[in-house]
Amino acid sequence: MLTESRFRRVVFLSALYDLVVTLPFATPWSFAFAQSQLSQLNQALGGVALAPFEVLPTLFACLMGSLVVVWSVLRLSDPQPRFGRFDAAGRVLFSTWMAWALLHAELPLIWLFLVPESGFAIAQALPFRRTRREVGAGHGAGAITMRA
Length: 148
Description:
Blueprint: E1 2-3, H1 4-22, H2 28-44, H3 55-77, H4 81-104, H5 111-125, E2 128-129, H6 132-136
Parallel strand pairs: 1-2
Helix pairs in contact: 1-3, 1-4, 4-5
């Protein structure tokens, strides 16, 4: 079982991963470049070229990217367990939609996102415990904890 401080580290690392992966999705200009790179990667992995995005799908990709960037910065600045629990729920949803995409298209590059997404979902859903030092310091007051 993880200690609360290690659990916070998992929350922090998941936020750092999200920031790095989704920052290119935050603007239409960075997304256009990222989409072309992802298309080439998908082809190198044996998949098909990705279709070019029109304005509306690009808008939704950038809205999603912008929200995840903001959510990442929040968790980086305050990696509290409560945020980790919410993030785990979001990752279950994201993983579900990625699995759906794998079943419906030749997109092997999805595995590069699905594996860490699922891993962080599981890690942030695990129970953790507070050490005596964390309890005494009031570390994580109001945090949601789960006992084994």
